[in-house]
């Protein structure tokens, strides 16, 4: 099964992960809406779609305050989709990450800063040369506060013209998340010397580490996810 899926989708994955670099995105400048409940020790969820999850997973796993990152699919109309079906663009799902994080260590706004710095949010249903609704840019909010923060951030970035075109990231209520197949989880961490990881993902991760040096976990302590 793995060989069949790779044969069908390898070219699309390379194109999505090899997209042109985005401009440097500043932190959210407007006030973040207050939480509706006092801070506690409960982990929060963020569901973000920003292209190839092999690449994006490897980035968010490095952040302090992130406890788990699971690659998967959301926003579609078919239950329990397979990677083959999502890759065909017939299920309506986006490739995404389900991120469990401690809001006392890293805020949702800070996750969005990483999100907007690691993909192109101005191309509709596209990342790099790869075209399809499964590669759309999306924020699937779990709370009204996440919705307000996302909309405020997008408004700020559009007003300051950080990107050469308007942001087309969809901001919509979270529905259902389906974890991707096991072999997609922790792909870079488990296969660091594989050719694709070494030549495509590693340079992206190294660039991210330089840009967000103050927000990283200690070297070698990236968090793992999975089903």
Describe the structure.
This protein has about 230 residues and is α+β, with helices and mostly antiparallel strands. Helices cover about 35% and strands about 20% of the residues. The protein is built from 7 helices and 8 strands. The longest helix is centred in the last third of the chain and has 17 residues, at about 145-160. It is globular, with a radius of gyration of 16 Å. Residues about 1-10 have low confidence and may be disordered.
List keywords for this structure.
227 residues, alpha+beta, 6-stranded mixed beta sheet, two-stranded antiparallel sheet, 8 strands, globular, disordered N terminus
Neighbour order of strands in the largest sheet? 7-6-1-3-2-8
Amino- and carboxy-terminal Cα gap: 18 Å
Which structural category do the helix and sheet elements fall into? Answer: alpha+beta
Task: Characterize the quaternary organization of these chains.
Answer: single chain
Number of strands: 8
Can you summarize the main beta sheet? 6 strands, mixed
- Poorly predicted regions: 1-12
What fraction strand?
Answer: 15-25%
Shape: globular
Q: Averaged pLDDT, please?
A: 87
Number of helices: 7
Taking Cα atoms only, what radius of gyration do you get, to the nearest Å?
A: 16 Å
> H/E element string?
HEHEHEHEEEHEEHH
Helix fraction? 25-40%
Task: Offer a concise description of the structure.
The chain has 227 residues and is of the alpha+beta class. The protein has helices at 2-17, 53-60, 83-88, 108-117, 144-160, 187-190, 195-211; strands spanning 44-50, 66-74, 94-101, 126-127, 130-131, 137-141, 170-173, 177-179. A hairpin with a 2-residue loop joins strand 4 (126-127) and strand 5 (130-131).
């Amino acid at each position: 099964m793995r060989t069949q899926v790779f044969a069908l989708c390898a070219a699309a994955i390379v194109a999505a992960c090899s997209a042109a670099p985005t401009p440097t995105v500043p932190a959210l400048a407007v006030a973040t809406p207050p939480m509706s409940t006092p801070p506690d020790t409960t982990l929060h969820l963020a569901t973000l779609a920003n292209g190839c999850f092999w690449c994006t997973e490897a980035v968010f796993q490095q952040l302090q305050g992130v406890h788990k990152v699971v690659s998967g699919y959301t926003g579609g109309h078919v239950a329990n989709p397979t990677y083959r079906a999502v890759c065909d663009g017939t299920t309506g799902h986006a490739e995404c990450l389900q991120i469990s994080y401690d809001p006392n260590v890293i805020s949702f706004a800070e996750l969005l800063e990483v999100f907007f710095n690691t993909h192109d949010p101005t191309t509709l249903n596209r990342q790099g040369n790869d075209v399809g609704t499964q590669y759309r840019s999306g924020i699937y909010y779990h709370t009204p506060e996440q919705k307000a923060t996302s909309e405020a951030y997008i408004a700020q970035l559009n007003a300051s013209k950080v990107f050469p075109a308007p942001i087309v990231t969809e901001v919509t209520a979270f529905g259902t998340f389906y974890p991707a197949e096991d072999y997609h989880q922790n792909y870079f961490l488990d296969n660091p010397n594989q050719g694709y990881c070494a030549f495509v993902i590693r340079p992206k991760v190294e660039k991210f580490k330089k840009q967000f040096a103050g927000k990283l976990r200690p070297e070698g302590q990236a968090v793992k996810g999975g089903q």
